[in-house]
Amino acid sequence: MSTIPINPVLPFLRTDRMPTIWCPGCGIGTTVNCFARALLDSGVDLKHLAIVSGIGCTGRVAGYVKLDSFHTTHGRAIPFATGLKLANPKLNVVVYSGDGDLSAIGGNHLIHAARRNIDIKVICVNNLIYAMTGGQTAPTTPGHVITSTHPYGTFDPNFNLPHLVEAAGAVYVARWTTFHVRQIARSMAEVFKKPGFCFIEILSPCPTLYQRRNKMGDGLDTMKFYKEHSKIKNGVSTSEVGLTRNGDIIVGKFVDRDRSDYLTMAHDQFVEALGDRYVDECAAECCEEGI
Amino acid sequence: MSTIPINPVLPFLRTDRMPTIWCPGCGIGTTVNCFARALLDSGVDLKHLAIVSGIGCTGRVAGYVKLDSFHTTHGRAIPFATGLKLANPKLNVVVYSGDGDLSAIGGNHLIHAARRNIDIKVICVNNLIYAMTGGQTAPTTPGHVITSTHPYGTFDPNFNLPHLVEAAGAVYVARWTTFHVRQIARSMAEVFKKPGFCFIEILSPCPTLYQRRNKMGDGLDTMKFYKEHSKIKNGVSTSEVGLTRNGDIIVGKFVDRDRSDYLTMAHDQFVEALGDRYVDECAAECCEEGI
Amino acid sequence: MAKGSVSIHVERCKACGFCVEFCPTKVLALSSAFNSKGYHPPQMVAPEKCSGCDLCGMYCPDFAIFGYRLNAADSANAPDKEATDAR
Amino acid sequence: MAKGSVSIHVERCKACGFCVEFCPTKVLALSSAFNSKGYHPPQMVAPEKCSGCDLCGMYCPDFAIFGYRLNAADSANAPDKEATDAR
Amino acid sequence: MQLTEIRIAGFGGQGVILSAIVIGKAASIFEGDFATMTQSFGPEARGGACSAQVILSESPVLYPYVTRPDILVVMSQEAYTKFAPELKHGGTLVIEQDLVRVGDLPSGTTVFSCPATRLAEELGKKMVLNIVMVGFYAAVTDLVKPESLRQAVADSVPPAFKELNLKAFDKGFEYGKTHAPGDAATAEESESDVKSLEVH
Amino acid sequence: MQLTEIRIAGFGGQGVILSAIVIGKAASIFEGDFATMTQSFGPEARGGACSAQVILSESPVLYPYVTRPDILVVMSQEAYTKFAPELKHGGTLVIEQDLVRVGDLPSGTTVFSCPATRLAEELGKKMVLNIVMVGFYAAVTDLVKPESLRQAVADSVPPAFKELNLKAFDKGFEYGKTHAPGDAATAEESESDVKSLEVH
Amino acid sequence: MHADPAGVLTGTHFLDGDHACCEGCLAAGARFASGYPITPSTEVVERFASRIPTVGGTFIQMEDELAASICLQGAVWGGAKAFTVTSGPGFSLMMEHIGYAAMTETPCVFVNVQRGGPSTGLPTLPAQADMMQARWGSHGDYGIIAICPNSPQECFDLTIKAFNLSEQYRVPVMVMMDEVVGHMTEKVVIPSADQLDVTPRKHTHKSPADYLPYQCNGDGSLVPEMAHAGEGYKFHITGLTHDERGYPNMTVKVQDQLVRRLCAKIENAKDLVAYEAENLEGADVVVVSYGITSRVAQRAIDQARAQGLKVGKLRLIIAWPFPEKVIRELAPKVKAFVVPELNLGQMVREVERAARGAAKTIHVGHAGGGVHQPEAIVKAIVEANQ
Amino acid sequence: MHADPAGVLTGTHFLDGDHACCEGCLAAGARFASGYPITPSTEVVERFASRIPTVGGTFIQMEDELAASICLQGAVWGGAKAFTVTSGPGFSLMMEHIGYAAMTETPCVFVNVQRGGPSTGLPTLPAQADMMQARWGSHGDYGIIAICPNSPQECFDLTIKAFNLSEQYRVPVMVMMDEVVGHMTEKVVIPSADQLDVTPRKHTHKSPADYLPYQCNGDGSLVPEMAHAGEGYKFHITGLTHDERGYPNMTVKVQDQLVRRLCAKIENAKDLVAYEAENLEGADVVVVSYGITSRVAQRAIDQARAQGLKVGKLRLIIAWPFPEKVIRELAPKVKAFVVPELNLGQMVREVERAARGAAKTIHVGHAGGGVHQPEAIVKAIVEANQ
Ligand SMILES: Cc1ncc(C[n+]2csc(CCOP(=O)(O)OP(=O)(O)O)c2C)c(N)n1
Ligand SMILES: Cc1ncc(C[n+]2csc(CCOP(=O)(O)OP(=O)(O)O)c2C)c(N)n1
Ligand code: SF4
Ligand code: SF4
Ligand code: SF4
Ligand code: SF4
Ligand code: SF4
Ligand code: SF4
Ligand SMILES: [Mg+2]
Ligand SMILES: [Mg+2]
Description:
The complex is a heterooctamer, with two copies of chain A (about 290 residues), two copies of chain C (about 90 residues), two copies of chain E (about 200 residues) and two copies of chain G (about 375 residues). With about 290 residues, chain A is α/β, with parallel strands linked by helices.
């Protein structure tokens, strides 16, 4: 064997920043790997693809992916992405962030962007915990779990995120675990082609702060748990996919529906109301390709 | 006829602040009237009833009701109420605010309080607009409506609030219009007795800023519209109760389910984890009845 | 004879017409008189039809009207100070 | 003869074991050797069974391994500079 | 033009602000003088009292608020009660005749009154009463040229309503020219005299 | 006690911080001296390098950071590479023998090495290697009394693990007493000498 | 660069300050606004919402001020000029994102039409009590520019200036209006587009291979060049302390370099001084004011001069960075500074500090809800003169 | 009043500053906390979450800092003593509610463990760059108190003081820690409950009929008495400008009365001065510092004294209100003030202002991420002495 092919995902990564900050057995890297595969396979135009993260372990994804990448403030990736997309509609905009970032402090933006059907793709790595700050309860943490802010076990009920974003208006909703690498990549490739607000939740191990504290072993143990306890149910009602500490994990593509996205609706309304007076130019055009 | 009975609702109001700031034909006052009736009829203990509002025309309700009343900041009535309730569980806490306050800037608190099942009663007067600031689009404004920030007609899709709060976890969800005065009062009386997070949406005319700008007449015209176009469908799936500009208005009690409220869950968890070491005292006890 | 009657706090009324519209027996109409804010408060145009059902009271956004049953009027309730300026 | 092989970037590996566990044909095992961070990277223990399916590569959270088909190895791809330190 | 302070007041929905804009625009845009218009915002929602202030001057206006108006235009009783006391000695009061009853006035006040609502209703649109008032104002005062005011009206309303508003202006102007000048009552006259003025 | 600067370093999960707490607590609570313990936080998540600093003194400690440690305890190669250069001239280096290879060292350094991980494994719980190290440290240095350190161990771990940790302490202490004193290698000796020390 | 005529409403208009500000934004090239309504500022975006579909661009009403204040930054990185508008309570909610804009060097404009505070305060009435907040309201050290119009004409002119400075310095610029100026209607003259100078984005001319997002190039300024998403640069932006590549770097050294540069590019800039001066030469008392208060003060100054007092006038146009040197040099030559503000003592602290005891500093405070009685300022001038 | 023994962990402990702060809260009687995690402050509430179920009370982790910072105020009006804890980015998000607490006179404590900024900055590393924000970060005029511990022991002691002052003045009090102090572990001595003074709520003794929520009673203070929900007072609280009844009142007069009182009750308070002084008498140079920097500075002071310089030390314990009078009176007697801070110039501006040019003011800035090299401070002292 004379030549070794390059690792096909490397061109999508900022290898100068490797190794990543993520712990051994952390699942975030696996999701990024799937993301890179999806970029590869879907042939999406990388020049016009931007990625926006909030703050958290997952929030660091933007920093490892070789795209125009934005590490914003905690919880605000979605409104930042909204501005990016609306000002420059040629961009494909992916939001990649953690469960806490997107559904705790960022919860309002999540539901409002879903309502407006902004054409952004949200990838939520759900490790059921606030990892970066040391393992506090997230809105996704199931009941009876030990966290640093619930040392005697959680009791706050947790969100069923697919259900919530569907109720808010998302047109595409899927859930996988880091065990489901091919399905993740497939879903990601799918949403690049789907206009409107798409949401992919990926359950991911945080051995350091979730599993260990709850005597659930390491990352690999969690992967095995995912393998054993995941049930693929495409199209199932999202009201039935809530998560518990040890229960089955319903995965699959739950929602895939069609609805005009925000910019299309705006365009149609202005055409109707203003006719020829409507100037259909994007905010960024003046500055674009400035070089 | 020798004596005139007193207006039975007056004892519940700060009559020294009347007349209210509300416009002629505004429906907010009608909802307050129903609220007063509910207080009267349900025999709820007024001393231990507190009311919390955000900012807006509806936000002024707290200022007209003779209870311990809190006019907080825009969007934050629910977390304020959460603190009030958790520190002093003997209180019954009602949040009374507008659609914009509760579902735009306050949207995150709305879904999180519903998720936690905090034992507060949320009354949302939905006039489909930001009234107090002059008629801007709210997340509830239906499509193709003229507002000050959508002078060519709205195109942002609107929330279906009952659906959203149900998905977030509310145990009681109802919708009425200001035409349905008896039903409103009945729902209000009902939620005083129902533990957990309850949500009552009341559609209400804003002739000054919504109806007039959209050539929908005055408050009375809107009341007639409500009368003609409301369909009572108790128990219908909340996914089917979205609102459009001129379409039918589905009203009724949509959700009434049982789930332990936040404090009960906390209590049970601590008892289980700590046994006798758990000191089940509320935060406020030290200071209570300070006089 | 009427079974009920209403009490109207003229100065609070903003003439929205809710009470007039939703009185089941059409007892009320807006008067042509002005109150000091320039509004036309309601008046009883068919007092004999009033049942005292208080629906008018429940609809009123300004706490300016309420209905009561006449046989209840002799009950122990103190007179409404607020309401005395009202007729 | 094996249909595929893997390339391992030893220094990036954090020894999570995902690649080992999820290789469908059990080609890999963690070695007893340390990398400079003190982790035991995987090694091929049954190279002949490797199909080059790259599942290992897809699971790897640290971009430290990937699989490829041997018949594809002669293709026009330039050698992976990154990967050369890897075997 | 000497610094002149004007206050226009009424209730929400009467178009008080627009009438102030028209006067300010006429002076500053169409006559090259300076005008500053400010409005009093109530604590909040509409429907309540509403008032606007215009200061006209041949040099830039500094202090933006009216202290003692030279001219007070009132279109509601509440506004009258509230603002009449601030009118400058020797000032001019312009009232909507059917909505305002004049009470005690400082001596030296000149009062002009116009049934603007009625005139507007004659045009089929009660909402143009404000422009009728402006026309009337143009007729009874001479601070700003009627042509400028008329131009300002045309420039300040949506195209679809231009015709109507110009008609309203003309109607008010005409009413002012035929009824008011010369027989403007001053508060030196007895209260009954003022009332008699309202009979116009 | 004179102001003494100690750094303890290793990787996440080794219990570096706890061992620093034990030393600081022993000195400040059980001996009445003063101790200030600080830790270096990486930019974020766990698993990476980890280091703690303890300053012991008979008077209150002001400047909270270690400038040139008198004593350096290292439990990983990375930590060794990073921190060995700052060791004070004539300072003491304590290493986890199986995890750290000693390279060039400033002359005058005294090196003690202990197979703490292996000893901990003998106790059935690898995670107590930090306390084994503390026991060893107690044996080879004499800044803080072994009894105080032992007391601090008991006071710093959850009740369920008290026994185990005390055993770990004793094991490390014993190892130190039997293997290290007297034959502590100094960096004046050749590198191979240091290595031979690791054979203990 | 000249303004794009599409956004320039050339002509003479009778506009209120809020509307004039909106026209300033359009003339400056802003084609994106994200807003959340709040009295007395909403008119700015209401007009923008009405104007922009026929100019080309986007207005979005967001769910809250947190969203509004970051959404516009996304738009800027997408290649637009963008702004948001608010008042006190909303401004408080924007503080985190003002810091983010400063840290990431995102050129953008925040308009604050000041109303009475604290808290909900006086929603429809004026104040000038967010001046210190504009400078210090976000955590950490950073520099910003704040600019204070005193008329609708200036709401137009200075808003353009705000955009220009934001592009020149890559910094958030605050347009600190007040309710009086925002709601006051006056003549506003808008020149033709070719008479309006607009500062273009400091876009890099480098190729992606050579480009480092936070490297200051030899142009002598402390301001790096910018690229936009979608142009192939594949850059990384973060609110963490970062090196020239835009990569997080958690060291004292990089923190020192970065944060000192962020502050110095504003504090040390020579051309960030803008004020209106009158009769400073030979003045005994100098009245320092800004915004609407400068117009009220003018009446007081005129009255005091009529009494024979030698009164100078210094009106701050750019309030931040504070023109420290001007005051410092003036102080030994005058008896006192009189500083009327619609607050209980904010910019006066800067005057006092800069004066270094060389002249008295007398504050004429007003808690807001209206403007000063000119007499109160005259009184202070007379006292100061003693 | 003595502390409630239930919350007092009497004994000698080896605690870090965050944990000591939590014990201070408990000892002060705080039984409610609402929090949102953020490095390096989370340990305070983590410990509270672990301690409170066995003490009696409530901790709730909210969905964001907006919620956390208003939730606790609900708890206060329900009758609890309550606090929240955060760091820079979260502190920025709390600004609106600090204003609300000031406006409604809600006694409560905000703990800010300062990290490097601006923006996300240096999450795990220290700074002291939110000092001006603590004073000025919310819109409008208002007063607050800010207090700066420099050791875990003080994190305990001064947190109690913070609660006590918040009750005495009905004002939000900020405990301005820094990452070093928060994460540093030292001996902390907690006395027995009967040796700890705790200020009870200023609860009204009036009957509901006589009670006006914002009336100052004849006690000479500017602080009204409080009632709680559920006691039958049926009061009304608003963030709008309000009269003594707590009812909205949008007039200049009420605004003036209310806001001046809110500021004056803090700015004019005689007993809000707390500092540590050493060798001020006869000093040529006085080093003014606070928090961790005061300990670093001490080493520098010692070194400078060893060189024979006459160096005084002034450590701010209460930073806001700033002890203006102390500096003003000291200035003519010394050559210079040296002000080291982990920021690029914040409290130094107050020193400079108060000094009125009577002494030089030299700032020793550090952008954060670590502490000063004592040598840098020594150098400044030497220069200042010249
Ligand atoms: C305004 C603000 N509040 C809090 C934080 C602290 N913070 C950083 S990351 C994080 C939680 C991250 O959780 P998640 O989004 O689930 O990401 P993970 O680390 O689990 O991947 C928090 C609370 C912050 N940076 N900014
Ligand atoms: C932080 C903040 N942002 C914005 C506002 C301005 N504001 C006051 S009320 C309101 C909207 C109210 O709408 P809604 O809740 O629907 O009440 P309504 O007036 O319609 O009853 C807004 C945006 C504010 N007071 N505070
Ligand atoms: S702390 Fe958890 S989520 Fe963060 S890198 Fe480690 S394993 Fe992953
Ligand atoms: S503006 Fe609308 S909601 Fe507000 S009081 Fe008037 S009618 Fe009611
Ligand atoms: S009480 Fe009933 S019947 Fe009588 S007027 Fe009122 S609504 Fe009509
Ligand atoms: S409902 Fe009330 S406000 Fe409306 S008209 Fe009747 S009495 Fe008047
Ligand atoms: S390429 Fe496939 S078969 Fe080969 S080692 Fe990887 S997973 Fe196993
Ligand atoms: S999956 Fe990657 S990191 Fe994990 S053991 Fe295999 S090569 Fe190493
Ligand atoms: Mg997470
Ligand atoms: Mg509304």
